[in-house]
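If your schedule permits, I should be very grateful for your opinion on a structural question. What I wish to show you is a protein chain and, alongside it, a tokenised description of its three-dimensional fold. Would you kindly read the sequence against the tokens and tell me how you understand this chain to fold? Here, with my thanks, is the record as I have it:

===
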Amino acid sequence: MSKRCMARVAAVLFSFVLALIPKGSVANVQPGSPAIKTADIGNGITLHYVEQGKGTPAVFVHGSLSDGGYWADQLEPFSERYRAIAYSRRYDFPNTNPTRAGYSAIVDADDLAGLINTLRLGQVVVIGHSYGALTALFLAHRHPKLVRALVLAEPPAVSLLSDLPGRQHAMGLAMLADIRRRMVLPMRADFHKGDREAGIRAFMAYVFNDPHAWDNMSLAARRETLRDAHEWDVMLTTGTLFPDLRPATVKRITAPVLLMSGRKSYPFLRAIDQELALLLPHNQNVVFAEAGHQMWVQEPDECRRDVEAFLRRNNVP
């Protein structure tokens, strides 16, 4: 991703964050914006969310180094046809939940099930980006009756790299080993030392293949990114960054799935998407030729158009 694109992504994330700044338990950031609400999902966990529109619920799940405000620009257009709901995962702004060991995408999936049940949403469409898409996969596995359809934008289900078929098998094993050696282990070491910035620097250097990626971001963007990294404080010290997801588990997911991929995204994510396309029983795939991992920022209208077309094809009213 170019420096210009990185700056654009950071600027968008910064503006999205403003949509979820709470003033009391429920507040509006500006006239006409949806009210910020809270849901007590049990076990001492409270999640902040916003919702807009009526009809079939569509729940939006953000990725890492982000929060529910990532979806701010999508809520209004989706609300014309759906009850659009965006929330912040357990340890992301503005949530202030207690630190508990064992945190991972599996915990996030159970939290999402708790939110769906607390709000009495019934079956929902889940639209997830990056780690939010991994959360959605685990939700479909652990709570299949809650899922009507899935939209997955490049979930980092890295354990699937160990099971790539045929000639790709060795490549997948090499990718997995490289991820663990050059990204996960350095991140874990830095977060164990309490050095959040160094941990994020290691992550950015790996995914952008640029040791200066973090330094090239503006001070404001780095400040907001550091705030949204609290989930890694918990996950990388007492939890699991990439929980195991087996091919047999993926094959049992029966909900219709739209896989969204960026042609310019990271090679290991493209390989995972290709494996998911082979494993998921009912899936369709759309590839954005000019986008990378942040396709929802780079091509928001095209993403929304393809999701709505997918839902129409699958008779989601």
